[in-house]
Amino acid sequence: MSFDNELPAGVALTSLDKFMGLNRKASVWPVTMGLACCAIEMMATGTPRFDISRFGMEVFRASPRHADLMIVSGRVSWKMAPIIRNAYDAMPEPKWVISMGACASSGGVFNNYAVVQGCDHVVPVDVYLPGCPPRPEALIHAIMVLWDQIHYRTPITQKERLEIARKAEKAALEATPTSQMKGLLA
């Protein structure tokens, strides 16, 4: 038997990434970020009827420093946006965000100066959960979708995250301003 042959590149690290993804998936801790009516449905997922404790997530953390999942539920006002961003920045890496409800995802029926038209303007969103308000079963499904992302995604470093943010900012600055766009309403 010859040991001259080496393992194909990335075999050991791929197995380690899968193992780490499984560990991350099994220990997701959400932070309390209920902003409006969708928060009632988010709280309902913790009741015995829907039993989010079967996923090990029954305790919503009061401090973002002890959580790695932010569920933004409800409309986000411009006054609340910096607070949400500060809470997101206080969370340890890796961290994930679920945008729960139509208001958090796109501003919902509140198309005015006071409401952010989607929390993705404030924090990066991993899973969008539509509905007004979405049922607790839908939130559980969104958590399971997030679990698949956590399990199969390789973690990125802070340097890679900053490079992605830099490219996104450059693309946004080079984009045509909305005021100059011509379309169906022109």
Automatic annotation (TrEMBL):
GO terms for molecular function: 4 iron, 4 sulfur cluster binding; iron ion binding; NADH dehydrogenase (quinone) (non-electrogenic) activity; NADH dehydrogenase (ubiquinone) activity; quinone binding. It is an enzyme of class 7 (translocase). Binds 1 [4Fe-4S] cluster. Pfam families: Oxidored_q6. It comes from the Bacteria. Keywords: 4Fe-4S, Cell membrane, Iron, Iron-sulfur, Membrane, Metal-binding, NAD, Quinone, Translocase, Transport. Its main location: membrane. Its EC number is 7.1.1.-. One of its GO terms (cellular component) is respiratory chain complex I. Residues 37-144 form the NADH:ubiquinone oxidoreductase-like 20kDa subunit domain. It is a peripheral membrane protein. PROSITE patterns: COMPLEX1_20K (PS01150). Coiled coil: none annotated. Gene3D superfamilies: 3.40.50.12280. InterPro entries: NADH_UbQ_OxRdtase-like_20kDa, NADH_UQ_OxRdtase_20Kd_su. The keyword 4Fe-4S applies. It catalyses: a quinone + NADH + 5 H(+)(in) = a quinol + NAD(+) + 4 H(+)(out). NDH-1 is composed of 14 different subunits. Subunits NuoB, C, D, E, F, and G constitute the peripheral sector of the complex. NDH-1 shuttles electrons from NADH, via FMN and iron-sulfur (Fe-S) centers, to quinones in the respiratory chain. The immediate electron acceptor for the enzyme in this species is believed to be a menaquinone. Couples the redox reaction to proton translocation (for every two electrons transferred, four hydrogen ions are translocated across the cytoplasmic membrane), and thus conserves the redox energy in a proton gradient. Belongs to the complex I 20 kDa subunit family. NCBIfam families: nuoB_fam, PRK06411.1. This is NADH-quinone oxidoreductase subunit B. The lineage of its organism: Bacteria, Bacillati, Actinomycetota, Actinomycetes, Actinomycetales. The gene is nuoB.
